[in-house]
C-alpha cells in the first residue's frame, strides 16, 4: 500500500457538510498513510483544530463565512511554513485560487471536486512530506556524525594521539582556538557501583548522567560534553566562565545528585588554548581529582601550579619517574616497574622526604598508576581505597615500596595473562557475537565497547584493525544480511522487516538497503523470487 510505514494527519475545512462527508468517505486516506484528525465548517474553528492537532495537511474551501480560506492559510503558514495547504474554489473564484498559490498554497481544486484528482494531489503532498522528513533525518545524521567525530577527535587528542586536522577540519568549530578550561566529572566509587549493576543498568545510569550533563551544560554555553572513560565525562567551558568555575562545579554535583541520586566529584583544569592542549588540560583536571582521596566527601577540586611537597620548598615532584612508571604499566613490564620503584625509593631517601610528604607522593603515584591500569585493561579485582589504607599503615618507606611492588606486580601479571587469553581477534570476535545477537536493537558503540572491556577509542581502533570494518559498517552489513535472508525466505512485508533488523523508519531502512545492495528491498525480493522460480 502507498502509505505503509507513513503517518500524516489532515484537517478538512468547508462550510458545506455534504462536501466534508464526501471527502472523508471517498478518499482512501488509510492507503495514503494519512489520518483525518478533524473537520471544521469555518476558519475560526479550523484554526482551533490546527493548533490542537498540529496537522501536516490542511484542505480548505476559499470562500467561507467569517475567516476565509486565504486568511486561514496565511495564519497557518506563518506559524509553520512546512505545512501542506490545499485550497478548494468554485469556477468563478479562480483569481482567489491564483492568489492562494502566490501566498504559498501547495495546489488548488475546483468544485465539483474530482476525488481521483484530489487523491493524486495528496500522493504528491505526502511525497513532499516524505522528502522533507528524509532531509531532516539526513541533516540530523550529519549533525550527530559531526558531534561524534568531534568527540572522537577530542578523545584522541586527550589520549595523546595527536594527528593533523586534515579532512576532519570541517567538523570543528574553532571554539578551542579561544581560551577554555576543562572539567573532568567522575562518579565516586564507580568500580564498586559497576560491580553491582548489570550491563543494562550500567548503560541506563551512564545514559542518564550524560543527559543530565548535556542539559545542564546548555544553559551555560559549554563547548562540548562527552564520555571519556567509564564513569567519567569531559566538559569544556569557555574561559568567560572562569570566575564561576568552583560554583559551577558544585552546581553540577548537586544536579547529578538530585536527578540520579549518584555522587560525583569534579576536577577543574587551568585555562588553556588550542586543541593540542587538551591532553595537558585533562592531566591537570585529573590530577586535581586526586585530592578526592584525601577528602571525606565528594567535591570540586581545581588544578593549580604544582606545590612543593609537604611545605618543603626544596622537594621536587619526580615527574620523570612518574612517566617511567606509567610506561611500565602501559607495557605490562614488571621488571621495569620494580626498577622504577627502587629508583623512587632512592630518590625519596636522597631528597630526605619527610614521612608525610613521602606518603602523599606514593598515594598520588598509586592513583595515577591505577587510573592507567583501568584504561584499556580488564577491571581490577582489588580496591584502590584498600591499597591506600594499607599504605597508611606501613611503618617505613621500605615497607611501603615493598607493598606497592607486590600489589602492582600481581596486577600486571593478571593483565598479561588476560591479554594472552583474550588477544585482539578474540576480543573482536566477542564484539561481533554481541552485535549478531543484538543487531535488532538500538545498538551503540559505547555498549559494545563496554562488552569488550575497552575504551571507545581503543575499541574503534582494534575493531577496524582486526575486522577491516568500522563498527557502523559491520553493524549495517549484519543488519542487511538478516534483511536479505528474510526477503528471500519469508513473505514478511518490507515495512515489518525494518524494525526486525534495527530500523524504526521503513523508508530509511529502504534507503540503507538500496545503498548497500543496489536494489530496493522489493526489487531484491522479486529478483530472488525469479531466481528461485528458475531453479
TrEMBL record:
For the HTH araC/xylS-type domain, which residue ranges apply?
A: 429-527
Q: In the UniProt record, does the keyword Hydrolase occur?
A: no
Q: What UniProt keywords are attached to this protein's entry?
A: DNA-binding, Phosphoprotein, Transcription, Transcription regulation
Q: Which residues carry this modification: 4-aspartylphosphate?
A: 61
Indicate the secretion signal residues. none
Question: Domain Response regulatory spans what residues?
Answer: 9-126
Pfam families xrefs: GGDEF_2, HTH_18, Response_reg
PROSITE patterns per the UniProt record, alphabetical = HTH_ARAC_FAMILY_2, RESPONSE_REGULATORY
Origin: domain of life: Bacteria
Protein's name in the database: AraC family transcriptional regulator
Gene source species: Paenibacillus cineris
Amino acid at each position: 500500500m502507498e502509505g505503509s510505514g507513513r503517518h500524516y494527519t489532515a484537517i478538512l475545512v468547508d462550510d458545506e457538510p455534504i462536501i466534508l462527508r464526501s471527502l472523508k468517505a471517498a478518499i482512501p486516506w488509510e492507503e495514503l498513510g494519512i489520518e483525518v484528525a478533524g473537520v471544521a465548517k469555518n476558519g475560526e474553528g479550523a484554526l482551533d483544530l490546527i493548533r490542537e492537532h498540529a496537522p501536516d495537511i490542511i484542505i480548505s474551501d476559499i470562500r467561507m463565512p467569517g475567516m476565509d480560506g486565504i486568511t486561514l492559510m496565511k495564519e497557518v503558514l506563518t506559524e509553520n511554513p512546512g505545512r501542506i495547504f490545499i485550497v478548494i474554489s468554485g469556477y468563478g473564484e479562480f483569481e482567489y485560487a491564483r492568489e492562494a498559490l502566490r501566498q504559498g498554497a501547495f495546489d488548488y481544486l475546483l468544485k465539483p471536486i474530482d476525488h481521483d484528482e484530489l487523491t493524486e494531489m495528496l500522493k504528491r503532498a505526502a511525497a513532499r512530506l516524505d522528502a522533507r522528513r528524509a532531509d531532516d533525518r539526513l541533516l540530523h545524521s550529519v549533525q550527530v556524525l559531526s558531534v561524534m567525530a568531534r568527540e572522537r577527535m577530542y578523545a584522541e587528542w586527550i589520549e595523546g594521539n595527536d594527528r593533523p586536522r586534515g579532512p576532519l577540519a570541517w567538523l570543528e568549530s574553532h571554539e578551542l582556538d579561544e581560551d577554555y578550561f576543562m572539567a573532568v566529572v567522575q562518579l565516586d566509587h564507580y568500580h564498586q557501583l559497576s560491580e553491582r549493576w548489570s550491563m543494562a543498568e550500567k548503560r541506563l545510569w551512564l545514559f542518564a548522567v550524560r543527559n543530565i550533563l548535556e542539559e545542564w551544560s546548555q544553559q551555560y554555553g559549554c563547548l562540548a560534553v562527552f564520555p571519556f572513560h567509564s564513569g567519567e565525562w569531559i566538559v569544556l567551558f569557555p574561559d568567560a566562565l572562569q570566575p564561576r568555575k568552583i560554583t559551577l562545579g558544585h552546581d553540577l554535583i548537586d544536579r547529578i545528585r538530585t536527578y540520579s541520586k549518584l555522587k560525583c566529584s569534579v576536577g577543574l583544569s587551568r585555562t588553556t588554548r588550542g586543541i593540542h592542549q587538551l591532553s595537558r588540560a585533562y592531566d591537570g583536571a585529573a590530577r586535581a581529582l586526586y585530592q578526592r582521596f584525601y577528602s571525606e566527601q565528594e567535591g570540586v577540586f581545581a588544578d593549580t601550579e604544582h606545590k612543593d611537597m609537604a611545605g618543603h620548598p626544596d622537594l621536587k615532584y619526580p615527574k620523570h619517574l612518574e612517566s617511567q612508571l606509567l610506561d611500565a604499566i602501559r607495557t605490562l613490564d614488571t621488571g621495569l616497574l620494580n626498577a622504577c620503584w627502587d629508583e623512587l625509593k632512592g630518590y625519596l631517601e636522597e631528597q630526605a622526604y619527610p614521612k608525610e610528604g613521602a606518603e602523599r607522593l606514593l598515594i598520588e603515584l598509586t592513583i595515577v598508576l591505577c587510573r592507567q591500569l583501568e584504561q584499556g585493561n580488564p577491571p581490577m579485582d582489588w580496591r584502590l581505597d584498600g591499597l591506600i589504607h594499607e599504605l597508611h599503615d606501613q611503618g617505613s618507606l621500605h615497607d611501603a615500596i615493598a607493598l606497592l611492588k607486590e600489589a602492582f606486580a600481581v596486577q600486571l601479571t593478571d593483565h598479561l595473562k588476560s591479554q594472552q587469553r583474550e588477544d585482539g581477534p578474540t576480543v573482536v570476535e566477542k564484539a561481533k557475537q554481541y552485535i549478531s545477537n543484538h543487531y535488532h536493537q538500538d545498538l551503540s558503540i559505547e555498549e559494545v565497547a563496554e562488552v569488550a572491556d575497552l575504551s571507545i577509542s581503543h575499541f574503534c581502533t582494534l575493531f577496524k584493525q582486526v575486522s577491516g570494518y568500522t563498527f557502523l559498517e559491520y553493524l549495517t552489513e549484519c543488519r542487511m544480511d538478516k534483511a536479505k535472508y528474510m526477503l528471500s525466505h519469508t513473505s514478511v512485508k518490507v515495512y515489518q522487516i525494518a524494525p526486525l533488523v534495527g530500523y524504526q523508519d521503513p523508508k530509511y531502512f529502504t534507503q540503507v538497503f538500496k545503498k548497500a545492495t543496489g536494489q530496493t528491498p522489493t526489487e531484491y525480493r522479486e529478483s530472488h523470487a525469479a531466481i528461485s522460480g528458475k531453479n
